[in-house]
Amino acid sequence: MKSLTDFDVLELPSETYDAVVVGSGAAGLMCGIVLKEIGLEVCLLTKGKREESSTNLAQGGIAVALPKEDSPDIHFNDTVRAGAGLVKPKMARILVEEGVKRVIDLIKMGARFETDERGLLKFTREAAHSVARIIYYKDKTGEEVERALLSSYKGKLVEKAQVKELLAEGNRCYGVVASVDGKLKLFYAPVVAIATGGAAGLYLKNTNPPTSTGDGIGIALRYGATLQDLEFVQFHPTAFCDNSECFLISEAVRGEGAILIDKHGRRFMGDYHHLWELAPRDVVTRAIESQRRITGGEIYLDFRPIEKRGIDIEERFPTIVKKLREKGIDPKREPVPVTPVAHYYIGGIKVDTFGRTSIDGLFAVGEASCTGVHGANRLASNSLLECLVFGNRVAYGMYRDWRYLRLDFKELRLTGKSIPLRIESSFSLEDVKRVMWENVGIVRSAESLTRAIDKLSEIAASSSRWEVRNGALLGLAIAVSAMRREESRGGHYRQDFPYEREEFRKHSEFSITDLERLL
Ligand code: FAD
Ligand code: SIN
User: Fold this and answer.
1) Residue 288 is part of which domain span?
2) What's the domain count of the chain?
3) What per-residue confidence (pLDDT) applies to 416?
4) Is 281 a catalytic residue?
5) Which of 27, 313, 415, 465 lies 20 to 30 Å from 64, alpha-carbon distance?
6) Which residue's C-alpha comes closest to atom 6 of ligand 1?
């Protein structure tokens, strides 16, 4: 299983760089900035407009051990505790320790964060953090991070360039095939980084931008890279959804004092966890689902306790308040109906501490990668930090490998031949999203996963559209991984195995050979 696109390198236009980075979110940009500083000729390809990314939508902030009552050790312990037994300690140490330096770099690049009257950083709290350690800029931290990183990136950047295939032979990657403004083009480089973000956009209800369809993870899967922990998807407890869209209501809203109530106006989170609304994300998500079932009604987020603390929600959360008012809801006066939706992809392309994948010359970084830093459940606001820390490290990893991987890759005669379809169908990406949401969602079971595996195999084997086939293959890999993990842990909840099981306290790995019998 490799290409979903027909191509012949001799027939296509090409460009050659020292390094290619795919994706212009925090991870790709940070990596690109450092590669350029090191002196490599780098080309950054991005699917839509340059700022279109999950990064740009981030609300809550960045977790960093900078407050005086905090330390990297305390941040490390919180990260490990939230990760439900699967955080890789070495990776988490790197995250919390290098995170402090990378946030300072980001501020030097011009990113603004809220400060007090003395000009010192302000910190807010989010779920499962034992200290208020989240730096933020109103409720649009991501926009600010994206702006600062984009203005610091000095390499080449190509918009509307969707990467679809790798130029790869044996276990070696030599570049990528992208559709640029609808035409195929080759981008050769001895080192390539996939920074295409996560896959929560493969779910019908999600907080992500339309670009988050797991493209890079699906591509890496097809070309034989080892993937890790695919079954772990993080569902955010509080999104507002209507018939046209879902959007996030930041955890920082609860961090500032908002409470969850049921249809009777009862604050219920104490029935589920001693940290109430600030329990780990997976706990709050399932508590909302359970309380909705018990009461047979909506769950609401009440912002009014925040105002009782003297905080003006219009000033603190301008984007959220504006958006809710556009929907006819005034959070100053009334509780807001909320629902859990897919938010963050914990699994991804397995990488080492410098972002190396199992394919030589291929790196991965950010939400597309799986460093193991989040274990089975990510601690809020650790993701942007991961992008900054590993974006920087991956650039150094690429530089090191570039020095010996420079070979005459232009001599290669690579071709791609789209895998034949069993039959041709008219399935759309919506079909994939519906199957994922209904069967591989917050609560899973062998029965629902079997349905998903059957349907996604059919879609993957019969759709000629790249997006649908790539998405269905990744969805299938997620469903199979979820089937294999016969326990509940972190973001993965199995109705038929509702508890953690010691024999499953290990990372799962997945590669294309695991799918062969299904296709
Ligand atoms: P992204 O920022 O998603 O960037 C991926 C890039 O790859 C995009 O430019 C995209 O266009 C491009 N791309 C995708 N496919 C292709 C392709 N085939 N070819 C070329 N380019 C491609 N985390 C926090 O730490 N704090 C927060 O407050 C926070 N709030 C969040 C709020 C929302 C609404 C969302 C959705 C996420 C939030 N997160 C937060 C998570 C965090 O924003 C993301 O995990 C992080 O930004 C991912 O960065 P990234 O660079 O890996 O991917
Ligand atoms: C949020 O603001 O709730 C999102 C934070 C995150 O996903 O880390």
Assistant:
1) 233-343
2) 2
3) 72
4) yes
5) 313
6) 23
